[in-house]
Design brief:
mainly alpha, two-stranded antiparallel sheet, elongated
């Protein structure tokens, strides 16, 4: 389902990049080769909902990191159900990865300075990697 969603979102963003007014195109994703441009992404920061929702900024952190934390907690719960206790390593993994996720979400404004946001287009490569 996720792979299908990434293909559909990438296709939507690729087609949308040809019809938007004032669309800022990424240098790397504007080669003229449709396969290459689809993969790298033509539009730099695709937006919707009246330019208030930035697809790339949202997908860079939230779904992947929050999903990662939910998986960690689900594995912790499963280990408790199977073994009747939670191992020290599972506790440490959840604590350290939880701190990492919290820090990334708390310092989210720092992502605006990364190469992914400032120079890369939002195409299949980033959509698939982020989700």
């Amino acid at each position: 389902v996720t792979i299908l969603w990434t293909i559909l979102l990438s296709a939507y963003l690729y087609v949308k990049s040809f019809f938007g007014k004032g669309v800022l195109l990424a240098v790397g994703g504007n080669s003229g080769n449709p396969f290459y441009d689809f993969f790298l992404g033509r539009e730099l920061n695709p937006r919707c909902l009246g330019s208030t929702f930035d697809w790339k900024e949202f997908c860079e952190l939230r779904p992947g990191l929050i999903g990662w934390m939910l998986l960690d907690l689900a594995m912790l719960s499963k280990q408790y159900d199977r073994m009747g206790y939670v191992s020290g390593s599972m506790i440490l993994i959840n604590i350290f990865q939880g701190i990492y996720v919290w820090d990334a979400l708390y310092q989210e404004r720092a992502i605006l300075t990364t190469m992914d946001i400032t120079t890369d287009g939002f195409g299949f490569m980033l959509v698939f990697g982020d989700l």
